[in-house]
Amino acid sequence: MPQVNIQTPNEQGLSHNKYSKFDVDTKGAILNNSRTNVQTQQGGWVQGNPYLARGEAKVILNEVNSSDPSVLKGYVEVAGKKADVIIANPSGIHCDGCGVINSDRTTLTTGKPQIQHGNLENFVVQKGKVSVSGKGLDNSRVDYTEIIAQETQINAGVWSKKEMKVVTGKNTVKRTGKPEDLQIIHTNQATTQETKPQVAIDVGQLGECMPIKFI
Length: 215
What we know:
Blueprint: E1 3-5, E2 14-19, E3 29-33, E4 38-40, E5 44-46, E6 59-64, E7 70-72, E8 75-80, E9 84-88, E10 93-95, E11 99-101, E12 105-109, E13 112-116, E14 119-124, E15 129-132, E16 137-139, E17 144-149, E18 151-154, E19 158-160, E20 163-168, E21 171-174, E22 183-187, E23 201-202, E24 213-214
Parallel strand pairs: 1-3, 2-6, 3-8, 6-9, 7-10, 8-11, 9-12, 10-15, 12-17, 15-18, 16-19, 17-20, 18-23, 20-24
Antiparallel strand pairs: 4-5, 13-14, 14-21, 21-22
């Protein structure tokens, strides 16, 4: 099972991890946020992460720089201390049986993360689609789930423990430590020469699903 020893968090608890590819197969993947050996639900015991001598992460940012969308077909599990999990790929994210374990807040976005003074401040969305199909998105153990993209296509069940928010369009979306404060602070208007998506949100084939809050 793939295991990532996440990067050393900064003073704000942000661990910034960069990838040229971020896919998860049906076996799942581990984000190691433990200083000591710890047992996981998916991968058994894992060794402590040597990069965490100063402390564990509060937010694990997974930033993908690729021309291809990320394909998530299994669960991403945080080993050790709970942390917010963010997967950011401007080329898109496709979820078919994906989910996150041991996290209170998860974000799937096609926005470019903006970090200021060590804090993750905004996502700048210029393109990209987050799609959910097949076995859906199971975040039933995650309190808050956020999908932030130019387009979303939800053709399967989606679950989050307390709340799920979807933000679509070319926007700059502000993120704070409080999920309820998620908001659009700037709309990145398309020019007349750009091709706009016909449908920003497509929920035509929704399966069994929890209520979604569209922003």
